[in-house]
Amino acid sequence: MFKIEAIIQPFKLEEVREALKAAGIDGVTVTEVRGHGRQKGHKEIYRGREYNVDLLPKTKLEMVVAEARKEEVIETIMMAARTGKIGDGKIFVYHVGDAIRIRNNDRGEAAL
Amino acid sequence: MFKIEAIIQPFKLEEVREALKAAGIDGVTVTEVRGHGRQKGHKEIYRGREYNVDLLPKTKLEMVVAEARKEEVIETIMMAARTGKIGDGKIFVYHVGDAIRIRNNDRGEAAL
Amino acid sequence: MFKIEAIIQPFKLEEVREALKAAGIDGVTVTEVRGHGRQKGHKEIYRGREYNVDLLPKTKLEMVVAEARKEEVIETIMMAARTGKIGDGKIFVYHVGDAIRIRNNDRGEAAL
Amino acid sequence: MSPTKRAYLRVCTLLLCALPVLAAEDPELIALKAAVKAAQSAGDNAWMLVSCAFVLMMTGPGLALFYSGLVRRKNVLGTMMQSFVMMAVITLLWGVCGYSLVFGEGNAFIGDFRYAFLNGVGAAPNADYAPTIPHLTFMAYQMMFAIITPALIAGAFAERVRFHAMVVFSVLWLFLVYVPIAHMVWGKGGYLNPFLGGRIPVFDFAGGTVVHITSGFSALLTAIMIGKRSGYPQERMVPHSLVLSFIGACMLWIGWFGFNAGSALGASALASSAFVATHFAAAAGAVSWMVAERIKSGKASALGAISGAVAGLATVTQGAGFVTPVSGAIIGFIAGFVCFYMVVLVKNKLGYDDSLDAFGVHGIGGFIGCLLTGVFATRAVNDALKLANGQAAPLGLVDGNPGQILNQFIGALIGIAFALVGTWIALKVTGLITPVRMDKQQEAEGMDVALHGEEGYAFED
Amino acid sequence: MSPTKRAYLRVCTLLLCALPVLAAEDPELIALKAAVKAAQSAGDNAWMLVSCAFVLMMTGPGLALFYSGLVRRKNVLGTMMQSFVMMAVITLLWGVCGYSLVFGEGNAFIGDFRYAFLNGVGAAPNADYAPTIPHLTFMAYQMMFAIITPALIAGAFAERVRFHAMVVFSVLWLFLVYVPIAHMVWGKGGYLNPFLGGRIPVFDFAGGTVVHITSGFSALLTAIMIGKRSGYPQERMVPHSLVLSFIGACMLWIGWFGFNAGSALGASALASSAFVATHFAAAAGAVSWMVAERIKSGKASALGAISGAVAGLATVTQGAGFVTPVSGAIIGFIAGFVCFYMVVLVKNKLGYDDSLDAFGVHGIGGFIGCLLTGVFATRAVNDALKLANGQAAPLGLVDGNPGQILNQFIGALIGIAFALVGTWIALKVTGLITPVRMDKQQEAEGMDVALHGEEGYAFED
Amino acid sequence: MSPTKRAYLRVCTLLLCALPVLAAEDPELIALKAAVKAAQSAGDNAWMLVSCAFVLMMTGPGLALFYSGLVRRKNVLGTMMQSFVMMAVITLLWGVCGYSLVFGEGNAFIGDFRYAFLNGVGAAPNADYAPTIPHLTFMAYQMMFAIITPALIAGAFAERVRFHAMVVFSVLWLFLVYVPIAHMVWGKGGYLNPFLGGRIPVFDFAGGTVVHITSGFSALLTAIMIGKRSGYPQERMVPHSLVLSFIGACMLWIGWFGFNAGSALGASALASSAFVATHFAAAAGAVSWMVAERIKSGKASALGAISGAVAGLATVTQGAGFVTPVSGAIIGFIAGFVCFYMVVLVKNKLGYDDSLDAFGVHGIGGFIGCLLTGVFATRAVNDALKLANGQAAPLGLVDGNPGQILNQFIGALIGIAFALVGTWIALKVTGLITPVRMDKQQEAEGMDVALHGEEGYAFED
Ligand SMILES: Nc1ncnc2c1ncn2[C@@H]1O[C@H](COP(=O)(O)OP(=O)(O)O)[C@@H](O)[C@H]1O
Ligand SMILES: Nc1ncnc2c1ncn2[C@@H]1O[C@H](COP(=O)(O)OP(=O)(O)O)[C@@H](O)[C@H]1O
Ligand SMILES: Nc1ncnc2c1ncn2[C@@H]1O[C@H](COP(=O)(O)OP(=O)(O)O)[C@@H](O)[C@H]1O
């Protein structure tokens, strides 16, 4: 099993999720985050005090999927989240040791 | 070392933490997330525009524990978080490469 | 590639990021979390009902870096985040299977 | 609002009304007198229209914010709606017959239908109640009281009752409890109305009995009958935004000037006196609750400060236009301590789930305020009640009339009795019509999503 | 505000003014009459100063909160600023010449510059408009209307227009649309002003045509001309904080008492009547929108309840001081249903992006309110319009004057025509001066960061 | 509030009072005169009671929100409490002896104890100060000023002072600074009071010197003596919710009508004039601050707009009832620019941590407002000061009395001197009683948790 972690533009969330659902991937956990990569930030000024804000709002999706579906999921996210501009985001892949469904003790891929 | 990541119902947070404390597990990081699995969402309507909201509020717990305690922790969480209904959540297990205590350079299991 | 996950005091965020930038580490994802470790919590009382709040506000930084830079990054964070008091936080290290830049299909270390 | 002020205002108008008798012949003088009357009415009406607005502001946004800040995030809109829907529904019912049943001269216990659909309620003042302002203003002002009273009760059963059931219950409650008690205390010929021919003289200037005792004791019973929130008291249930509650409390404080000083029914010196007594009571209530907290747990809290202010305000309501400002401060002090004790110690011991302390603050505050009015009411402030010889009658204990405390006590008991019986009936009948409680699943989801299909705060950016 | 009340008030002053003629010789009487005049003025001025404050409160924080809660989080400050900047900019322009161009007696379509820089606007009342209050008060009160009207439009093009463009557009719009229409309806000799020598009698008590029709139809056109928000309607765009909108709606409700009852221009019984009609319309609007929602989707929502109240308020504005409270309730009921239908069904079908429903609520509400005034206006409430024989003229259909509906319709059409033409010109000219829309990048970033360099809610602790 | 209005009001009452002399014999006329007096009082009292409420609303929720939005999230409740506790504590002290020490006729520098515990403060007007409203109303109105003044100071030492220390300091400060200055400027026989027998004529209509100079300069000294917030200025410390600050600023604007126009002490034309001047100043201040921002950094911000409005309001306070509305706009313009310059450039250069700019806005605004009153005050607006021949005395430079600028300057210097000395003593004494600063650990935790044991926004759902 693998965890696919995608950090995307917040306004792309709907689109990505639609695409994933179409691909049959339902289980997902979403977090509001702030991120910095290549995208430039902006300046904020409060009564003359300037701050360079280079942490921009992003949305993080985490999906644990069976190995077999890994590439397909990555592909799907990439297609849906891409605008071609800096700030589109990243996908990271991690190996998952185990998965358990709390409700009924299902373990491993059965728990996904 | 392993990271136990549990995604549970928000109102179960207290109970799960009590159970973990009873089991001697203190270190934990908690994040407010939204998730979708098997649980059905709900409809929201704002001036006639309907949205299907299938991302529901969940709470994510992350605990890094020594290998020896892994199963016990999983067990403890499962017991405390279970209601038996859809939406109870999942536990994912990841391998952790290293741990460092910022305060004093402790490394590895000593840092937990 | 490795993911360095650092849980630090919120007011240390600026300092840590400055230090990382100085070290040439730009890419980072930041999450507001609450955590409990050795640090004692506090009591809150609302109209006579007492709650022990032992989940304190923390900031989580996640950076995926090439293996070569791992130790340097850990070192940098430690220096910048340390106050020497309980609650300074932890760093956890995970192995990363893959990284993809959504914008242009870059993969692996090239995507960082 | 208490009939006292009517008498007070009558003094003003008497000055004018007496005149025509003497010089009916001089058309110029007649015109001048009419002009003076109009001028007096303008001043009084200006204040009363503002008071109407202020009292409405107490419900929305005041109470709506105060309560909704105290609940969990998922119930913020549902809780606001419980106040807001009263602004809509009670308004209409008040126009249909609520006003008439309270202020129409019926029998000693309930009014009649003479003013149904605002028939006969127009520009001309109602001389019995408020001789210097349009009858419409008086009607509107009273309406605002009828709106907030059932809204207060909702604090006791917060976070667990269906929207429709809440509305049905409130409507029934209005007619079963509010209408008769308000008529008895303020209506012409009402059983407890000392100023317009009642039997037992109960002094209730701005609604200590009519509003706070009735809503507070009803609240207690609903909390018990409906049962606790699931998860209470084990689960953590803390105010999701004391910021909202703080704003709400300030709005309540401001609005209460309309509530209490407006009850003078004109911009008279009595209004000023009630205004000041009210303000002092709020201040003193805040201070004493903070002191009590500091003694008990070492820290004065923001929630404590605002709770104390509200307790002071609720408690001084009954006496606002009968007591001196200094007495107002004393009443506020007592209120802060006593309500603190009730909310913090007694409630947690007895174990019912009066979620937002509608009973602890309004019930208890109203009750002790009723008694304290018997102690502190004085003709030095309010000389509307006359002896046979035309002199102002002594009012409370401080005037040498200790028996008034008993009268107030009886008034409070009658209020409590109506509240408990009426609430019991209203809740049972509601249960026959529609399920009262949200089911477990809905309670977990929260009122906003489960009942109203929305969220108070959006997730995405 | 409608000239009607002037006539009404004149009755009061006539009582006084007539007198000196009879007894000019008696110095004591003269002094007394002056004193009575001063007293009348104090009462009326008290209410009008409060009304000024209330109407300003409708814009900030009222409308600012109502609107900004409905947008996405990243636009919260930018949306608030659209209201706030009107409080600053329109105020100054009103003093420079706005007031004069509306209320200076010019021709039938626009005023003149006699009051430019408030020249001649001082302590003495303007007898034409408001004989019992200082001219300054009247000027200030009218100013608050001029502030909120362009602020309302901004709801239609929310979340996508540059700050500077919005300001430029609003200023142009003020002079191209608001100024002429307000002069025609309320100015001395205005074409539609039945009380001060106009041709076509249009009854607009508090601005149904002047404020709501103009802003609402202008809103529609801006929504179409400026185009949709990028991502609309596919992307999820839900109110980021209905809590803010709720507070704002309550402030609007309260403030509307100043808007409508203040339009009596004194603390008269007419003010009371308008106050009550307004309140009933708000309540009824909230109820009927909730009922409509319940029928359509099974759940009454908080957003629905507050939208219904605002719809009721906007709709009753035109008739507030001409109709009975019961008619007010009927108007509110109709408003809730019709506006619900427009916003929920029609808009989503036609597909323009009137983001915060400025047209659906204010345009439609204003329009039907204009017609309904023709139906329900009655001399029983407002007898300011006189027949040749000195008796009160029949007003609306209920008085047996069905032709008034046509008059109102013509008034509405003229308002709409000015709104559409003026908006088209104003927007085109604005586009020549400065780019109107934010670019894609800015729209994605949000107004707060992109236009104002700040954030509404901070990220870190 | 300035003694000027007293004189103004006296004109009104003179009309009445003069009469009985002439016709003491006619009982009907006597009754009529009493009725006129009552009517005048109703109108004035209506406005003044509302003004009391408005000024209280400035502190809570106004200032409380304005300030608490500017701090970090963890200090939101603690900051609100600094305002709220003043509403409680100062109220009580004002009743005990604060009012008496300001308005009791003592010597030129401080009052006496004649009104201690509100002894002798009742329904009858105090003819020296406000002859047409109940003495109680005047006392209450003045109270609201005493509440907000120390609350303003807290902006300078935000986020780092213990709750108890803040209360102790504020109480000491009230007696050491506010009480003597208020007596000198407004009290009978006060050294600077030109209307009631003072030596140096200082015109302070609504508290430019009494409220803003004293609080502003005290703020500066506290910021320096207490020291910077730990982490300032390296750490990011941005307003946690400009939404709250925005709501607060709007409330301040509205409430300021009570502050400035209420200082006419009646619903007179002078009140209208002050109202309009105040509104224009706020608008102009907002515009000029936005323009300054736009020039300096290219973007007008919401924080800038509301800061400018508040600066305009603070600056016009001293002159509100002495200057024309157009002068009000000029004063506002200047205020926006000057305060912007102070806050954005000077403060950041000098490096003290006046965290919420209490000095930069109130101190500087109050100071230039004091001088500008010397420039723009005119008998065309306020003719209360009489020459020996009974004619209105020339007031400011525009009336041909340039010397008044010097008088105003002396007044300001005396205010500053009292502020600095009194603050120094108050802070030192406070330090002897209780530690002033939170310790590092508490500062990191935040005031809400560390001092009050609560959180402003709950974490869990
Ligand atoms: N090395 C990294 N480690 C963790 N998160 C990262 C890393 N690089 C980028 N991110 C996350 O991805 C988001 C988008 O990255 P960015 O570099 O701006 O996109 P792009 O490479 O397409 O221009 C960032 O805001 C950040 O949250
Ligand atoms: N494959 C997955 N990857 C990531 N998170 C998941 C996945 N499946 C479920 N989750 C998380 O777990 C939560 C509960 O899952 P759900 O399927 O509703 O529970 P259950 O299986 O007990 O019915 C979801 O809301 C989501 O946050
Ligand atoms: N075993 C663990 N698993 C996950 N998170 C942890 C663990 N231990 C600590 N943390 C996180 O690190 C934060 C700081 O830990 P703490 O023990 O208080 O620091 P220190 O060890 O320096 O005193 C905690 O608030 C929590 O978020």
Key words describing this protein structure:
heterohexamer; A: 112 residues; alpha+beta; Alpha-Beta Plaits; four-stranded antiparallel beta sheet; two-stranded antiparallel sheet; D: 461 residues; mainly alpha; binds adenosine-5'-diphosphate
Please describe what this structure looks like.
The complex is a heterohexamer, with 3 copies of chain A (112 residues) and 3 copies of chain D (461 residues). Chain A is α+β, with helices and mostly antiparallel strands. Chain A has a single domain (2-111), classed as 2-Layer Sandwich (Alpha-Beta Plaits), CATH 3.30.70.120. Chain A contains 2 helices and 7 strands. In chain A, strands 2-5-1-6 form a 4-stranded antiparallel β-sheet, with helices on one face. Chain A has a two-stranded antiparallel ribbon with strand order 3-4. In chain A, strand 3 (42-46) and strand 4 form a beta hairpin. In chain A, helix 1 (13-22) packs antiparallel against helix 2. Chain D has 461 residues and is mainly α. Chain D has helices at residues 3-23, 27-70, 76-103, 135-153, 163-186, 208-226, 242-260, 269-297, 302-316, 325-350, 358-376, 403-433, 440-445, 447-452. Mean pLDDT of chain D is 94; it is low at 10-24. The longest helix of chain D is centred in the N-terminal third of the chain and has 44 residues, at 27-70. Chain D contains 14 helices and no strands. Chains in contact: A-B, A-C, A-D, A-E, A-F, B-C, B-D, B-E, B-F, C-D, C-E, C-F, D-E, D-F, E-F. Chains D and E meet through helix 2, helix 3, helix 4 and helix 14 of D and helix 1, helix 2, helix 7, helix 8 and helix 9 of E. The structure holds adenosine-5'-diphosphate (3 copies).
What's the helix and strand layout?
The complex is a heterohexamer, with three copies of chain A (112 residues) and three copies of chain D (461 residues).
Chain A: E1 2-8, H1 13-22, E2 28-36, E3 42-46, E4 49-53, E5 56-65, H2 70-81, E6 89-95, E7 98-101
Antiparallel strand pairs in A: 1-5, 1-6, 2-5, 3-4
Chain D: H1 3-23, H2 27-70, H3 76-103, H4 135-153, H5 163-186, H6 208-226, H7 242-260, H8 269-297, H9 302-316, H10 325-350, H11 358-376, H12 403-433, H13 440-445, H14 447-452
